[in-house]
Design goal:
There is one protein chain. The protein folds into three domains: 4-141, 3-Layer(aba) Sandwich (Rossmann fold), CATH 3.40.50.300; 147-284 and 295-341, no CATH class; 353-444, no CATH class. Helix content is 40%, strand content 18%. The chain has 17 helices and 15 strands. It has helices spanning 4-14, 32-39, 54-62, 66-77, 97-109, 121-126, 147-153, 157-163, 173-186, 190-199, 206-223, 227-240, 260-272, 304-311, 330-341, 389-397, 437-444; strands at residues 22-25, 45-50, 86-91, 114-118, 138-141, 276-279, 281-282, 298-301, 353-358, 361-365, 367-371, 374-380, 402-407, 412-417, 423-430. The strands form four sheets. It has a five-stranded parallel sheet, with helices on both faces. The protein has a five-stranded mixed sheet with strand order 11-12-13-15-14, sandwiched between helices. The protein has a three-stranded mixed sheet with strand order 7-9-10, with helices on one face. Strand 3 (86-91), helix 5 and strand 4 (114-118) form a beta-alpha-beta unit. It is globular. The mean pLDDT is 89.
Length: 445
Amino acid sequence: MFWRKILDNLEEWANSVQRKPLVLRGARQVGKTTAVDLFSAKFDYILKFNLERKADLKLFQDHADIDSLVPALFFNRGIPMGQARTLIFIDEIHNSPSAVANLRYFYEEYPQYYVIAAGSLLDTLIDKKIHFPVGRVDFRVIRPVSFNEFLHASHEEQALEALATIPFPAYAHDPLMKMLRTYTFIGGMPAVMVKYMEINDMVKLRPIYDSLLASYLDDVEKYAPSDRFVQILRFIIKQSFYFASFRITFQGFGKSTYNSRDVGNAFRLLEKAMLLSLVYPSVETSQPLIPDIRKSPRLQMVDTGLVNFMAGLQENLFGNQLLSDIYGGRMAEHLTGQELLSLTTGTLNRLDFWVREKRQSQAEVDFVVAYKGLAIPVEVKSNKAGQLRSLHQYMEAAPHAIAVRVYSGQLSLEDHHTPGGKRYRLLSLPFYLVHRIYDYLDWMM
């Protein structure tokens, strides 16, 4: 089963003493509705409404007042109001500003009901009339299926047992790398994974990817405020996959004639819709890591499988190349970023990386993670031992002596030193252990 983490999180939310209506965030097609359908089995009744359906939307429009709305919802579904454990799920809530506004009154006046809402953030953010009631709702993020969740859904019990063992057993390395290659090929979009598990044929997944991309493009045409903005958004969605894990500039992005302001606005809108992330660098080597928005951001797309498909890289994954050799190492970086983002369902989780942009002293570390008050550098590398120049520069400036390398090799823990003589401990993690990075930092300490 996918969504193990979000289902556990939903259970925690439901059992909270100060439970508020919950808003699920995430790009289209990442499984928000399906996760709620699975979770609803724990309730006596579920009242499910999709506000893209005219009848359901009219129900919310005709009953804008909460005291009129709640009885109407139960009556419409033929369910008695009472003490039964009842979940109210409002899907595509962005279509009704009054439904969004009423979330606060569910919290204040009808706290006995469990209320979950979901919708397209792209639509919501374009419609400036819609505002979520701050302080009266909770948020959770659903992202594409992680590698660990993929193994659970594939019933790879031995692999999961090996991953649960610290330190990871060396004999399981090659099989896990093979499974990771499959995951990297197809990505974490649920529709793709379900189809793959049905037919076990990667070649026949193309129509699913086409459908996913078409749905994103259709959203743009349906909700963008102007024809010109439609063109810019469509252009960026198509072009962005070619620039995954690259640092970008807004002016003339993708060799276009669009100006910096228009491109920046379009990128920020797509970021809020969770189709991509603009990852800004920090120049700090200690907490807090403050992104420098004056510098060029790096582009992280919603899913590695979609990047492979759009960029025509999937054929490379059939071969014997290391992940870190494909697309100049960018695919390995993108996969690592996706796994780091999957570690939490919180809305504040973001990626960070580090740069030093001084004359004759350029350096860049792929990721920086916060760990017990420390800013730990994470460098994504090939299977070769050397080439840690940027990591050395970071460690020279860092107030601690811990670093991480993610690569295709075996788990290891080694003593290193910088050219300046500073000694530090290097934790080398195989790609399939990225999701356990904090457990291994504990083990390292």
